[in-house]
């Protein structure tokens, strides 16, 4: 075995250039798989990993402040409870540190027992007077570290640790940054009564029986106001939905990576076997078995594939690790760290196996012929056909490439998939941009809002030049009374809301009376609600209001978990609800001018974004991940073209040498190769466009969001960009390969015949 | 007037103990209208000599002048220009591009020089001259060896080079086809060009104006 390996190593060294080319191909494919694996594995396991490390409770109950003893007595009586702990949560608390400040901080006063968060830097609370633990999102956003100072409601505190709790996304994706203080420490200084609680953390004995615990908890909740439950599974569903687009894209990307792997490795192996048919014939003549011949080629392939695959996987993982870690951090999840090594090792095994098989198969097939036949057939060039290509060097290149029908078809297929993926990413980037900046993408038809203004403001706003219409807009957060933990938003305009927000109706009709609701498809999916169902909304006031569903709409905001209603019944449930004013501008009106006009009348406005500012950051992180995937994809497309041309140049070295002997310079050789590459691009580009528009775009849109139709078809500009990019890649590949060809002495290339 | 003039040409392949000197201070002059045959054993360096003269390779030592150009002073671009305008090559295995018809093969080098349309006319004239009219539209794999080699001769001549280098031009042909090819080469030389052919073929040596023998890296008459 060692002797065989030494022999294989020596043969590889003997053809160093080709071995390096094959290794580069394997490394490129491995880089793609490394990127896909790193992001997909991180996202698929991030929540469980963070939940495990944070000891996340199975059930979190929030309610109006109650005596700890009173609540504990009820919780203790619940079935399936393994342990429990209690907190006091105070919201809208001012936090400040080194020039940064917010008035919407959430302070969790923690007592004894399990904490439900993981310390990722520094230490946990010891109970000393001025200690505070901050959530990682806040630490990252404000540049805080253990040892720094933080003002909590005006009290100066020392940061002792940084924590992660995956029961919610991180600040600033979550609007309220969380900090933790000990009840006998800073909690006491802040005036928190240690005898009170408004949050119970419950760990179950058997998570699969949590529904029983929930039903019982609901049954014994009399006298406890504003009770809301959040289950661990519910948290995971919400977070998974947020990452849906990325995961869907990675599935398509990984499929393309495997396609590329198969084609490039297979083509390289076949060309190499063809080159060495004579050797195979001699080996067979000397008595080597078919298995022996194939095994020898397989061994050589493994020697190349192991280091190249490991290098590529490492590079791909390193490229993707940073952006995917940021994505996970924004979701309050933990990056995989060393746990990623196992799936990467699995990928390496797959790659090495694939390379070995792709090499052994053509060797096995070649060795199955009679030795004399193999020796006679040591010929690389396929039988040429008369094809209608342009004359000259450019046309000659097209003919050389087209002569290898199988390889050209495979290269075109893989390049088409790559093109489709790039187009998909461009379309997705445009969509993300629209979601970030264009209110119309969420069905909003108003451009400005006025918050917290008295009723008398409305007529003033309507009178401002450039304002087409203005109306009060009510918005309330609610939880479904039947399926606790399912939260959604109730939105109400007096009269026809479609003047201001007009998501398309996919089923039923618009709201007409006070007791009716049209709900987003996301909410309909979550609740299993249909036209004719009743939704029971538990409002922040603790009251419940019910609506009959008359229509389902394709609303994109809040993951489609919205319900449009009339204000009457909403205000009955929560009389303290204050509206904002939605301002719709006349066509052609300048928002800046209208804003300035309103300000001159003492009215402050806010521009309507599509996503909230925190969501915008999240979308930005998503875009970073897509960029990494796109860059790797472009490199792969370049590699495919280069590999294809290099193989052609390798096989047709005598032809190119004769052209050079006749006076063709590097320019003419590049023209020949450019002709070949252009043929591939000319076939791949339209195939890629069709694939994106007809298959990938709709498939990813369906996988990403099932509550709305997300248009993901590339537009003309993007298609032009992609095709020009492909042509540029083709030219780059042609120039590079022409350079390599030019380095081989003509006399040497001629001797290879 | 000498079209080829070589003095002290030396070429060694390999290094150290594996080094093999195939040309050792070889001298050669070939004038326009002269047909010179280079004879020698296999591996004696005949092809190497032609490659050096044709600008496909560089000598380790010595001076070489082809059609008035000192090759030891040429850049890569200069070598390309030399091959494009002054040198025509014919190979033992013809090396026609299999995807191109006979006529396209002949016309291909004309795209490298100015006046492609006049080049195309020259290509057609040469095809006629070499008796290939009827098969000019066929792909190489459908042609006989003799026909392929005649197309190769036409391709080598189409840009009107000063010197024609033929490496074993009859090595892959039957006797009849070989005679036809040699007759054409003789006609090329008679037309004023220098023709240098490396050969084992005694008939080829007989038709040449002069035969030089390559032995131990040196040329002798």
Detailed description of the structure:
The complex is a heterodimer of chains A (753) and B (221). Chain A is α+β, with helices and mostly antiparallel strands and 753 residues long. Chain A is 54% helix and 18% strand. Chain A has four domains: 1-53 and 246-379, no CATH class; 54-241, no CATH class; 383-437 and 611-753, no CATH class; 442-609, no CATH class. In chain A, strands 2-3-8-5-7-6 form a six-stranded mixed barrel. In chain A, helix 19 packs antiparallel against helix 21. With 221 residues, chain B is of the alpha/beta class. Chain B contains seven helices and ten strands. In chain B, a hairpin with a 6-residue loop joins strand 1 (2-13) and strand 2. In chain B, helix 5 packs parallel to helix 6 (175-190). The interface between A and B is medium-sized, with 28 and 35 residues.
* Strand proportion of chain B: 25-35%
Could you list the spans of chain A in which at least 5 consecutive residues all have pLDDT below 50?
Answer: 378-382, 610-614
Order of helices and strands of chain B: EEEHEEHEHHHEHEHEE
**Largest sheet report of chain A:** 6 strands, mixed, barrel
Please tell me the total number of domains of chain B: 1
SS element count, helices of chain A: 23
How many β-strand runs of chain A? 20
Rounded to the nearest angstrom, the radius of gyration of chain B is 17 Å
DSSP strand count of chain B:
10
Shape of chain B: globular
Mean pLDDT of chain A: 80
End-to-end C-alpha gap of chain B: 19 Å
CATH topology of chain B: the name is Rossmann fold
Largest sheet of chain B: 6 strands, mixed
Q: Poorly predicted ranges of chain B (pLDDT <50, ≥5 residues)?
A: none
Q: Helical proportion of chain B?
A: 25-40%
Within the largest sheet of chain A, what's the order of strands?
2-3-8-5-7-6
- In the CATH hierarchy, what is the superfamily of chain B? P-loop containing nucleotide triphosphate hydrolases
